[in-house]
C-alpha cells in the first residue's frame, strides 16, 4: 500500500510541476500551523505471544484500529518552493489484534469442535515529532516527506482468549474446564519501545481564506510506515493513514514588498514620416524613441504596461520620381487595431494566443444543395472534395454528411429515404435526378440499393421581401433531404480537441495613402521571414482590411516574437513602403500560469435548423441542450449568442437573434449565463450559399469550465 501511495504522490508531483509556479514570494518567511487528523492504524506482525504473557495463538499477523493526531507546526521557506517544517503533537497508534483458531471444547458435557479468538487490545499513544521537507508542486498543492519519531507515553495491553463459536455455550477442556475466557491479562505492554520511528509522506491542497493567501485552510492526507517494533524483539510494524485539516498562517512580508512585477502589455506607437531631402536618401531610420510605464495593482500583483513611442523617417528625393505631369505627393502608413468578439474595435497592444481543451457538438444539416437546373452531386460533398466555403470558416463536418450517414447506416443498419425538392421554376425530373445522384453515392459507399428509397416534392419560397431575398430562399429549396430509419444517421457529431483562441480574434488594418496614381499595392504580415497573411490588389486600396485570426489558426501555429506588417504600393516607377509591428505571444497548456489566467475546458455548441423567422426550440434542439448539460458543472459560465442569416431587415434580424438566445438561456436557468444578439452582423458562414444561411440561423453556446 505504501508503494502505491508513493507512486501516486510522485505522479501528482511530476504533473504539477508542469502546471504552475508560485505567485507569492515566500522565501525567508515563517508559517504557523494548527492541525488535526484521524485515520486507520494497521498492524503487520508475525509473533506467537507477547513476552511473558501466556497465549496459545499460533501467530498474531494483523491488527486494525484508528486514532487521532492533533498538534502544532512551524515551517520556514528556504525558497518560494521548498519549506523545512516541524510538527509536534499527540498521536494515537492503538489497534486490536484478533486471530481465530479451531479448538476442542465441551458443550453440555459432550466433547465438540468449536472456535476461539485470541484478542490483544493495544493502547499506544505518545508525543509525535515530525521534521519534514515540503515542496509546493503548485501554488496550492504541497508534497511532504520526512522521518517521524513518537515518544511513547502510554503502552498497555488487554489480552484474552474467548470461545466465540458457539457464542453462548461451551467451555475449554483440561485445566480451563468450565471457563469460556482464559489467559486474560491487563497491564503495561511488556518490553515496550520508548521511541517509535517511521517514514511519513503526504500531500495537501490549500484553500485561501484571505486575499493575500497568508491564511489558508488545508485538507491533508498522510501515510506512514513504521521502522521498528512497538515491542522489542517482536516482528511487528505499524502502517498509518491519516486524513484531516490544518489551519495555517504565513508570515509573508509586507504586501507591497511582496509584489512581483509582471509586464502584461507592451504598446508600440509608431509614426513614419515621409521627408523630402536634396541629398542621398538614407534607409528608413528611427528618429526618436520614448518609453513610459503605467502601473496598476491588481490582487497583490503589480501590472506594468509599457508604452514605446517611436518616430521613423522615410526619405525621398523629388528628382528621383517620375513626373506624370499631374503633380503629386505620396505618403503612406499602416495601423492595426483589434476587434473583440462583439465586433467592437479596441486598441491593439499585442496578439495573445492561448491553448484550451475544447469540446464541441456539431449538428449535421440533413440536406444536400444543388445549383439551379443541376443534378450533379457537388464536389464538396464527395470524398477528397474541395470545400467551396473554406475562406469563410466553413462547417467542415457538414460537407462530410454523406460519408457520416453511410458509416452510421453500415455499422448500425437501417434504411435511408431521399426526398428531392424543386421549386416552381424547375422541373420535377431535375429533382429526381438529384436524388438518384445522392443514391448512387450511397451505393458506392456499400449501402444496398434496396435500403434506399427516393421521392420528389415541390416546395414554394414563402414569405415576402425583395427579389434578392426570394431568390436566396429558392436556392435553399433546391436540395435533397436525407432521412434515416432504424438509426439516427444525421445525429450530432462530437469533437474533442485542443484548440487555440486568439485575443483579439480579429485584426483590422487601416492603410493610409495620399496619392493620385497607384499601379498596385500589397500588405504582408511576416514572422521571422515567413508570410503569415497577405492582401494585394491593383485597384484602389481599401479603407480597411480584416484578418480573421480565429479562422486561420494553422497559419499562426509556431509563431514566436513579433509580427511585422509591410504595406507597399507602386506608383508608376516609384515604390513606397510603410511598416508596423504587432507583438505576439502564445500560451500552451503546459506553460499556462494557473494562478493568473486559469485553465479551462472550452465547450462550443451550435443549434441549427431554426425555422425561418422562428425562435422556437424544436425537439432536436432540446436533445442537443440535454447533451450540453451533461458536459457542464455548476461553476461553468455560458455565453449564448443568437444569429440569423442575411435575409430580411437588419433590425428585425437582431430582435429575432435576441429571442433565440433568450430561449436557450431559459433552458440553462441556474447557470451563469450571458446572452448576446448578433443577428447578421457577424457572418461566420457564406450567406450566399444555402448551407451557410442555414448554419447562420443558429444559437452558439460557449461554455468555460475550470479544468481540474
Please characterize this protein's 3D structure:
With 708 residues, the chain is mainly beta. Among the domains are: 2-256; 364-491, 60s Ribosomal Protein L30, Chain: A (2-Layer Sandwich); 600-706, OmpA-like domain (60s Ribosomal Protein L30, Chain: A), CATH 3.30.1330. Helices cover 15% and strands 49% of the residues. The strands form 6 sheets. Strands 1, 2, 3, 4, 5, 6, 7, 8, 9, 10 and 11 form an 11-stranded antiparallel sheet that branches. Strands 17, 22, 29, 30, 31, 32 and 33 form a 7-stranded mixed sheet that branches. Strands 16-15-23-26 form a 4-stranded antiparallel sheet, with no helix packed on it. It is elongated and about 120 Å long. The protein starts with a helix and ends with a strand.
Mean pLDDT: 79
Strand content: over 45%
Q: Please give the number of β-strands.
A: 33
Give the end-to-end Cα distance, rounded to a whole number of Å: 26 Å
Helix content: 10-25%
Q: How would you sum up the global shape?
A: elongated
Rg calc: 39 Å
Helical/strand content category: mainly beta
Question: What profile does the largest beta sheet have?
Answer: 11 strands, antiparallel
Separate helix tally: 9
Strand-helix topology:
Layout: H1 2-19, E1 30-47, E2 60-77, E3 82-92, E4 95-107, E5 110-136, E6 141-165, E7 181-188, E8 195-205, E9 207-208, E10 215-226, E11 236-250, H2 255-258, E12 262-276, E13 285-298, E14 301-316, E15 331-339, E16 345-346, E17 351-362, E18 367-369, H3 401-412, E19 415-422, H4 428-444, E20 452-458, H5 467-477, E21 479-485, E22 493-503, E23 506-514, E24 520-527, E25 530-537, E26 545-548, H6 553-556, E27 563-571, E28 574-582, E29 584-587, E30 600-607, H7 619-631, E31 637-643, H8 650-667, E32 672-679, H9 690-696, E33 699-706
Parallel strand pairs: 12-14, 17-29, 17-30, 19-20, 31-32
Antiparallel strand pairs: 1-2, 1-11, 2-3, 2-4, 3-5, 4-5, 5-6, 6-7, 6-8, 8-10, 9-10, 10-11, 13-14, 15-16, 15-23, 17-22, 18-21, 19-21, 23-26, 24-25, 24-27, 27-28, 30-33, 31-33
Helix pairs in contact: 5-9
